[in-house]
Design a protein that fits this description.
The structure holds two protein chains of two kinds. Chain A is mainly beta. In chain A, 6% of the residues lie in helices and 42% in strands. Chain A contains one helix and ten strands; from the N terminus they run ββββββαββββ. In chain A, a hairpin with a 2-residue loop joins β9 and β10. The relative contact order of chain A is 0.26. The longest helix of chain B has 20 residues. By secondary structure, chain B is of the alpha+beta class. Chain B has two helices and ten strands, in the order αββββββαββββ. The chains are: A mainly beta, B alpha+beta. Chains A and B meet through β7 and β10 of A and β7 and β10 of B. Chain A: This is 5-hydroxyisourate hydrolase.
């Protein structure tokens, strides 16, 4: 059965070791504009490839402010290492025109980066 | 320059030296770089918070604005710099908005753990409209 790529994808890469960051917990949240509180949309873990399919459906992916919280501190701890960042939150804006967004995280114990892909 | 001006110059420079010695540099520094335009990220609002471990509330420590060099000296005093979890919030959306451009990131918050407050920590932000990175420097 074919699976359509969701409208929002992520990919976590462990740049310290040069491997995908597998089994990292993460969560997707949407900002409720009226109450200015974050609502939890999805909780998941990255797979062996550092990806987490099925973050959100197209219908649910309405314009607004979202954030992905990556449990990077827990991840490094499970590898027996400390890290400068207890977690990483990437907050981004989704417009009506955004059909397919890619929000990756490249992370090491002492650095991280992200970019907007598609 | 006459003799009075010459002497005054010496007195003023001594004062400056004494003031600099009295205010030690912040053990925590930042630097915002706009790599899309190849310039320092000037006039960006930055806010520093410290997590209260008991109540899990973020306590505001400092509000500042980056200077022309993209830096914000005086983020925290050495005496106030204790071990704990800190957060630096960069008002990136407002920064690009002031230049008439949109940004994918309405703000950037970098949360980090200070285990040894006797060390120096540099938490820069390298930024474009559609990407950013940070690292732990010293």
């Amino acid at each position: 059965m074919g699976s359509v790529k969701g409208p929002l994808t992520t990919h976590v890469l462990n740049t310290g070791d040069g491997v995908p960051a597998a089994r990292m917990a993460l969560s997707l949240h949407r900002l409720d504009p009226r109450m200015t509180v974050w609502s939890l949309v999805t909780v998941g873990n990255t797979n062996e490839d550092g990806r987490c399919p099925g973050l959100i459906t197209s219908d649910a992916f309405t314009p607004g402010m979202y954030k992905i919280r990556f449990e990077t501190g827990q991840y490094w701890e499970s590898l027996g290492q400390s890290s400068f960042y207890p977690y990483v939150e990437i907050v981004f804006t989704v417009s009506a025109a955004d059909q397919s967004l890619h929000v990756p995280l490249l992370v090491s114990r002492y650095s991280y980066s992200t970019y907007r892909g598609s | 320059m006459n003799r009075l001006q010459h002497i005054r110059g010496h007195i003023v420079s001594t004062d400056k030296y004494m003031n600099m010695a009295a205010t030690l540099p912040s053990p925590l520094t930042t630097h915002v770089l706009n790599i899309a335009q190849g310039v320092p990220g000037a006039n960006m609002t930055i806010i520093l918070y410290l997590l209260d471990p008991i109540s899990s509330v973020w306590n505001l420590l400092t509000t500042g604005i980056t200077n022309d060099d993209g830096r914000c000296p005086g983020l925290i005093q050495k005496e106030s710099f204790i071990a704990g979890v800190y957060k630096l919030r960069f008002e990136t959306g407002k920064y690009w908005d002031a230049m008439g451009m949109t940004c994918f990131y309405p703000y950037v918050e970098v949360v980090f753990t200070i285990t040894d407050p006797s060390q120096k920590y540099h938490v820069p932000l390298i930024l474009s409209r559609f990407s950013y990175s940070t690292y732990r420097g010293s």
